[in-house]
From TrEMBL:
Belongs to the LDH2/MDH2 oxidoreductase family. It is an enzyme of class 1 (oxidoreductase). The keyword Oxidoreductase applies. One of its GO terms (molecular function) is oxidoreductase activity. Its EC number is 1.1.1.-. Keywords: Oxidoreductase. This is Putative oxidoreductase YjmC. The keyword Electron transport does not apply.
Length: 358
């Protein structure tokens, strides 16, 4: 059984994902949009949040937890802000709408802040901030995690998720600044991919209820994810929960639904997307060049012994994405076999005919 990554053409992968979503009642236009966003995640190297998530999305569509035909609407709006209701649809639809509206408002008013309620898991936040930087704007996005895996600092009840946050900025460079992180040491998606591949977790990602390190990803439900920086990561996660959850009338704390184990309930996932125009601060011509100058200084800093040269978040992403668009993406064989199983379950031709499903 092969252990080497398997390459697939991006267009072929998009067509398969869209066709699979359509078998669960998603209209073609929406299926194409979601499939494109999912494959973009893999193109930019966010494999834990790309087509790997197809099984979960199909399960929620089948179970009724996700609405295959949502009407994404703007519920409240001012010149610079808005609140979008995702109607329990696939999260990519509401978040894409929020991103586009935030950019539109930033160009008109200097800033655009758009919240989302009744959303769902939407893939990596990087995809909802990179377009701002490409348009000469700064971007920010955050979300309440799609399941609670973290207790409040010093506590033992699971009341917080990975609560990710992302930032972007334009730079006079092929690569904009794009920083996307969970507020936990590791994202749950990384643990799920290790489980799929039969590999252990490093120490420091999770602890069991006895406080000892947990390294078996199969036991992830028996332990806690650890916040970055201890109480500081906990505080950041709470702040994100207030802005992405409470402010939008979305779930936070014990109201959060585990979107993997519960496929029938509405998650009411909360998110927000922001866009900021440097021109609003008189920096329309200088921001990107000043950022590039400072970044060059950072990259020129001599590395410590045993360390690689300094890199900035987003470095190399543009060239790597262009290469994948041209040559295809490489997926781990365990994921490829799972996609073949999903294809058979959906009545579709397996996208990896050379791999056995077992």
């Amino acid at each position: 059984m092969t252990s080497e990554p398997v390459k697939i053409d991006c267009h072929t992968l998009r067509e398969f994902v869209a066709a699979a979503l359509e078998t669960r009642g998603v209209p073609k236009l929406d299926a194409d949009k979601v499939a494109s966003t999912m494959v973009e995640a893999d193109i930019y190297g966010y494999g834990t949040h790309g087509v790997f998530r197809l099984r979960q999305y199909l399960a929620r569509l089948t179970g009724g937890g996700s609405n295959p035909t949502p009407k994404v609407t703007v519920e409240h709006e001012t010149v610079a802000t808005a609140l979008i209701d995702g109607d329990d649809g696939l999260g990519h639809l509401a978040m894409s709408a929020a991103r586009d509206l935030a950019i539109e408002k930033a160009k008109a008013a200097g800033i655009g802040w758009v919240g989302v309620r009744r959303g769902n898991h939407a893939g990596p936040l990087a995809l909802y901030v990179r377009p701002q930087a490409e348009a000469g704007l700064l971007g920010m996005a955050a979300a309440v995690g799609s399941a609670n895996h973290v207790p409040p600092y010093g506590g033992s009840d699971l009341l917080l998720g990975t609560n990710p946050i992302a930032f972007s900025a334009p730079v006079d460079s092929p690569d904009p600044f794009v920083f996307d992180m969970a507020t936990t040491v590791a994202a749950m998606g990384k643990i799920k991919t290790l489980l799929q591949r039969g590999k252990p977790m490093p120490e420091g990602w999770m602890v069991g209820r006895d406080g000892n390190p947990l390294t078996d990803p199969a036991l992830k439900s028996e332990g806690f994810l650890l916040p970055i920086g201890g109480p500081k990561g906990f505080g950041l996660s709470v702040a994100i929960g207030l802005m992405a959850g409470v402010l939008n009338g979305a779930a936070f704390g014990s109201d959060v639904v585990n979107f993997t184990s519960d496929t029938t309930s509405s998650t009411n996932t909360g998110q927000f997307v922001m866009a900021l125009d440097p021109a609003a601060f008189g920096m329309d011509k200088d921001f990107a060049s000043n950022a590039a100058r400072v970044f060059s200084e950072m990259r020129a800093s001599p590395p410590l012994p045993g360390h690689d040269p300094v890199r900035l978040p987003g470095d190399g992403k543009t060239a790597a994405a262009e290469a994948r668009r041209k040559n295809g993406v490489r997926l781990n064989p365990a994921l490829c076999r799972d996609l073949n199983k999903l294809a058979l379950n959906c009545g579709l031709k397996p996208p990896f005919p050379g791999l056995k499903t077992d």
